[in-house]
Every structure is written in C-alpha cells, then in structure tokens.
C-alpha cells in the first residue's frame, strides 16, 4: 500500500495520458492474490486518482473494479 501511495503521490502533476506506465503497473498489481487486502489501506482520494488515470486505459474497467 505504501508503494502504491508513493507512486500516486508522485504522479499528481501528470495527466492521464502521461502515466500509462503507472497504470500498467497498477493493472498488474490488481492480479496479485492479496491485492484486496492492500486496497483496504488506500485512501479514498488515492482511489479516485487511480480511477481517473484508468479512465482511458484499455484495462480501465478492470482497474476501476479493483479499486471500488
């Protein structure tokens, strides 16, 4: 959770089209079996940020579902 929080904080100034690598990383994280436990420690603001970044991504629906 800390790693994801740090990543999201670092990306605050970027637009969604500039963070494709981070969205791919987040998509990969959602496939980790214990990701549901990690997502419990992510703040609502961070979840909103992930949803915003994932909006135009090919795996956007998958990512949004994992974070909501």
TrEMBL record:
Pfam families assigned to the protein according to its UniProt record, in alphabetical order: RPAP3_C
Domain of life: Eukaryota
Domain called RNA-polymerase II-associated protein 3-like C-terminal: residue spans: 2-47
Name of the protein in its database record: RNA-polymerase II-associated protein 3-like C-terminal domain-containing protein
Annotated organism of origin: Aphanomyces astaci (Crayfish plague agent)
């Amino acid at each position: 959770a800390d790693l994801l929080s740090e990543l999201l904080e670092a990306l605050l100034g970027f637009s969604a089209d500039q963070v494709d690598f981070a969205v791919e990383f987040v998509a990969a994280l959602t496939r980790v079996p214990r990701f549901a436990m990690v997502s419990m420690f992510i703040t609502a603001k961070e979840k909103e940020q992930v949803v915003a970044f994932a909006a135009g991504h090919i795996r956007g629906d998958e990512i949004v579902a994992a974070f909501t």
